[in-house]
Amino acid sequence: REKEDEASKVWTKMVLDIAYDVEDVLDIYYLKADERSQRGRLRRLTNKVGETKDACKILDDIKTLKRRILDVTRKRETYGIGNSSEPRGGGNTSSFRMRQLRRTQSVDQEERVVGLEDDAKILLEKLLNDDGNKQRYMISIFGMGGLGKTALARKLYNSMEVKGRFEYQAWTYVSQEYNIRDMLMRIIRSLGMTSGEEIEKIRMFAEEDLEVYLYGLLKGKKYLVVVDDIWEREAWESLKRALPGNHNGSRVIITTRIRAVAEGVDQRVYAHKLRFLTFEESWNLFEQKAFRDIKPVNQDLERIGKEMVTKCGGLPLAIVILAGLMSRKSPNEWNDVYDSLWRRLKDDSIQFSTVFDLSFMELKHELKLCFLYLSVFPEDYEIDVEQLVRLLVAEGFIQEDEEMEDVARSYIKELIDRSLMEAVRIERGKVVSCKIHD
Fold first, then answer.
1. Where do the domains of the chain lie?
2. Hey, is 168 helix, strand or coil?
3. What pLDDT is stored for residue 340 in this prediction?
4. Are 47 and 63 in contact (CB under 8 A)?
5. I want to staple 433 with a disulfide (CB 3.0 to 4.6 A). Which of 307, 330, 364, 425 is the partner?
6. 92 has a pLDDT exceeding 50
7. pLDDT digits (tens, 9 = 90+) for 11-24
8. Contact indicator for 193, 217 with CB cutoff of 8 Å
9. Rg from Cα positions in the chain
10. Is residue 52 within a helix (H) or strand (E), and if so which, with residue range?
11. Following DSSP, what letter does each residue of 334-383 receive, concatenated?
């Protein structure tokens, strides 16, 4: 155990070094960008050679950082740090160790999916009605990143009508890099049908044996399985073998960005494409978050807000990140943010990366480091909040103080409030786990 903790310390130090170096590269990039924006046209033309050298240097730095991140990821696997989603014996976790807590349970609270109410109604009907055909039926939710695919699937998953109709429910995720064995284990744990002792045994099973085990668990059962963020059909084909048809009205929901995946996973599939929000829906979403502490809302703020929302093009994730940024601004600062966004406009619309970059650069130094540290974890990685609190304190991200853990919690809350992170599980109004957006 001591060797494991020592390996964790070494790995964590490597991650911390990368986080600091990433911030240095970002600082250089934004410094150069500001310098270019302040030059006159003639001077910009005469400085093209220097700018090219700067760009090449930054590009080389980014490539080096990517290699280091890949290397530190491989070392995480080599050291056995947080690369298993199954529970280990004893239950005690070192403050230097971040276990790989996968998405095995969705948020308990009722999801607010502004602009997706009609979609939710259509898909709920597809889930609950079988028209006399008891074969397993699939629903695909597809569309570009940031449209709310996962939020919509989560709303359906947590619906009381759904919980009352399906005997067993499970949630797993895939992402671009996936491991079939891990996906099978997440479904098995999520079903809640297997004791901790049994989990300890089957965690050593080969992939084929896990398929047989899961098939046996679900045979004859009416189930709902959500497979979030599929990027290729092969991932589903591998899972499908472990999910019996049963002819009793079982359902599978998948989310994906790719139409070909959505439409090609099964002969019996309903592929549902998510649309962009209308302006009214976009404004409703923005207003809920940006103005929650500003009452009453004056006309100037409303005008600025509506102009910015228009430029978001109906993309929900861009809107909530922008709203999270504005919610922390005083009325006097709204014009400054608006001017900054206007300078970054491309093709008369705000790119998602523009909103994200602006929100990130608004963070204070300590919060930037915390956020960059989290970016090392794989896509869709679910992080336990209390373990994250202890990790941030132990690794020196929080200045020494009597209330260091409270400060760490406030950092996590601010990242969630700004929509830079997403709450995954909430119990009694408290965020239990979170993840970074795709």
1. 2-79, 117-273, 279-436
2. strand
3. 78
4. no
5. 425
6. no
7. 666 776 776 676 66
8. yes
9. 23
10. helix 48-79
11. HHHHHHHHHHT-BTTB--HHHHHHHHHHTS-HHHHHHHHHHTTSPTT-BE
pLDDT at residue 357, as a whole number: 76
CATH superfamily, domain 117-273, is: P-loop containing nucleotide triphosphate hydrolases (3.40.50.300)
Residues pairing with 223 in the sheet: 168
Integer Cα distance of 241 and 179 in angstroms? 15
Contacts of 153 (CB under 8 A, 6+ apart): 141, 226, 228, 253, 255
Q: Quick: pLDDT tens for 67-85.
A: 666 666 655 555 555 443 3
CB atoms inside a 10 Å sphere around CB 120: 17
With H, G, I as helix, E, B as strand and everything else as coil, classify residue 254: strand
Direct distance between the N- and C-terminal alpha carbons of the chain, in angstroms, rounded to an integer: 33
Rounded to whole angstroms, the Cα distance separating 320 from 307 reads 15
Sequential DSSP letters for 107-153: -SSPP--TT-HHHHHHHHHHHH--TT--S-EEEEEE-STTS-HHHHH
Question: Coil, strand, or helix at residue 434?
Answer: strand
Q: Which H or E run includes 281?
A: helix 279-290
